[in-house]
Design goal:
The protein is an alpha/beta fold and about 375 residues long. The chain has a single domain, classed as Aldolase class I (TIM Barrel), CATH 3.20.20. The chain is built from eleven helices and 14 strands. An eight-stranded parallel barrel has the order 3-4-7-8-9-10-13-14, surrounded by four helices. Strands 5-6-12-11 form a four-stranded antiparallel beta sheet, with no helix packed on it. Helix 1 runs parallel beside helix 8, helix 5 crosses helix 6 and helix 9 crosses helix 11. It is globular, with a radius of gyration of 19 Å. The N terminus is likely disordered. The structure holds flavin mononucleotide. Flavin mononucleotide binds next to strand 6 and strand 12.
């Protein structure tokens, strides 16, 4: 079991980073609390039963989605259409809450997630070929007290061809159920020479682009043991130039998002956005799981820096909120998607009011039973 007092250092690190935007000090920040209902307590009991098998517990979300198809749909009028000034295909969402990447890595049972209340789903992250991810166990764990998940999965997935094939088969049904489907792609961490790296990520992108509604390029995975792409701006520029050139040859333009790390400083975030905007990138996901060199959890050390993965969930929210405001203020034409610690419908409302086009969530589904439906209701009641 994890002693949650050990998280204090990592959480302090996140909140220090959250203060970086002087510009947003006047914005009202509220970390809304939710009541623990009876069903949330039952979920807590289920978490306790599977406490030694965290990866299995994570895979259960898919089965909950499949079984929830037996229940009647809840149709709240929360539809959103996201349009893009460059003519990229619009995204039609039945709710502003989308399932974040990592929860359904292999694109299985996609349309079932609409029954959980999601207005869309990002599957993946997919790499060029199958990867088993990091070899150690456990690779994922949960801190009850702080309502966070820590992980060092290391991009395990079936490979882009299998993922794209499954998306192709299910996308029409997903659209009929009000969901947009995106694929998250990343470079293969073990490829090292520059030309092969570029070829690897561009091939992965191209296969995903052929079938998905939008593509997320994951440039910020903190737990493969490799340097993150968002810290290697020269190579990142080549990747997005390649993507831009490819998109110009396609008859149908689709939106492309870059998923950035939540630990970027103001200066880093600005220089990345300055680089991405002229290359036709439509938007950014802010952000990924929070990499920390100060995690004290029971994950093995992964790389030379001693980083042991990242954390997700409630402690990320203030950082998400302030970064969303910052990005929107400095780059108003970018589509901003808030992600990190979003666990209440009023947070969704606040983020959309601050200019986010939609939000992504994942960890909350481990802590609130029927989380997204509850958040949709809280959001609906507030607008
Ligand atoms: C177990 C786990 C696996 C994840 N895998 C991925 C992934 O493959 N690709 C990715 O872009 N993000 C991945 N993430 C990050 C989430 O998509 C999300 O950015 C992060 O968890 C913050 O959102 P949350 O606080 O709502 O969970 C993962 C997160 C967790 C907890």
């Amino acid at each position: 079991m994890v002693d949650s007092s050990h998280t204090a250092f990592a959480i302090k690190e996140i909140s220090k980073n959250s203060q970086f935007q002087q510009v947003s000090q006047n914005q009202i920040f509220r970390n809304y609390e939710y009541n623990l209902d009876f069903d949330d307590k039952v979920l807590g009991f289920i978490r306790w039963i599977f406490k030694n098998n965290a990866e299995f517990r994570h895979s259960c979300l898919r089965w909950v989605a499949v079984l929830s198809q037996l229940l009647p749909d809840e149709c709240l009028p929360l539809k959103r259409t996201i349009t893009f000034s460059d003519g990229s295909k619009a995204l039609n969402l039945s709710s502003p809450i989308i399932l974040a990447a990592g929860a359904n890595k292999n694109a299985k049972s996609i349309s079932a997630y609409s029954n959980l209340g999601f207005g869309g789903i990002t599957v993946g992250t997919a790499t060029r070929n199958f990867r088993s991810g990091n070899p150690h166990r456990p690779r994922v764990g949960l801190d009850e007290f702080n309502r966070l998940i820590y992980n060092s999965m290391g991009l395990n997935n079936d490979g882009i061809s299998s993922v794209a094939e499954r998306v192709k088969k299910q996308i029409e049904k997903s659209h009929n159920r009000g969901m947009a489907v995106g694929i998250s792609v990343a470079e293969t961490p073990t490829v090292t020479d520059e030309a092969s790296r570029l070829q690897d990520i561009l091939e992965t992108f191209t296969i995903g682009y052929g079938v998905a509604d939008y593509i997320e390029v994951n440039v910020s995975c903190p737990n493969t043991g490799e340097e993150r792409l968002d810290l290697d701006t020269k190579f990142m520029k080549s990747v997005f130039e390649g993507i831009d050139n490819f998109r110009k040859t396609e008859s149908q333009r689709k939106s492309v998002y870059a998923k950035l790390s939540p630990d970027l400083t103001e200066k880093q975030l600005c220089s990345i956005l300055d680089l991405l905007a002229p290359l036709g990138v439509n938007g950014v996901i802010l952000g990924n799981t929070y990499p920390s060199e100060h995690l004290f959890y029971d994950l093995p050390i992964l790389n030379a820096k001693g980083t042991s993965g990242g954390i997700s969930g409630r402690p990320l929210y203030e950082n998400t909120f302030r970064k969303t405001i910052f990005a929107k203020k400095h780059f108003p034409s970018l589509s901003v998607v808030a992600c990190g610690g979003i666990d209440h419908g009023l947070k969704v409302r606040d983020l959309l009011n601050e200019g986010a086009d939609f939000v992504q969530a994942y960890s909350v589904s481990a802590f609130r039973w029927n989380a997204i439906k509850k958040m949709n209701r809280e959001f609906f009641g507030a607008v």
